[in-house]
Amino acid sequence: MPLYEYYCEPCNGIFEELRPMREASEPVPCPVCYKDAKRIMPTSFAAFTFRDGYPRRIPDDGKYWHLGKKVSRLVTSARPNEHPEVNKPEPKKRKTKGEKQELQDMKELAAKRELVDLYGNEIKPEEVPEVVEQGRVVRKGTPRGL
Ligand SMILES: [Zn+2]
């Protein structure tokens, strides 16, 4: 069934309903106040109250909507059609030989106490895989802010 948008006037909010196409234009009871809400077109969103750039949805519990699913944060990635809470994370890539070698080199640097993280703390060899994964690793002496 397609997803349609409905607007509840008393609540001044938008909600979505899955409905058969032939019933799409009939009013749907609002999930908050149970009054009849009329169907709206996505293009009319601009007329409604916005919160953080998104039309206010009801029930408004501080959450956002993404492709009909409720999520707690807005999409921040470059691909706005994907949301980590909706789309499954990609399976972890296996490390290439080069990456393994790089990790090994980093461990050796760490053993020589030449690796620091973004806060200038020394990285121990056993911490290398984790900090590399998180992108926190900085070689000692690397100028900041580059
Ligand atoms: Zn309502």
UniProtKB/TrEMBL annotation:
Disordered: region residues: 75-102
InterPro entries in alphabetical order: Regulatory_FmdB_Zinc_ribbon
Putative regulatory protein FmdB zinc ribbon domain residues: 1-42
Entry superkingdom: Bacteria
Biased composition (Basic and acidic residues): 80-90
NCBIfam families documented for this protein: CxxC_CxxC_SSSS
Name the UniProt record assigns to this protein: Putative FmdB family regulatory protein
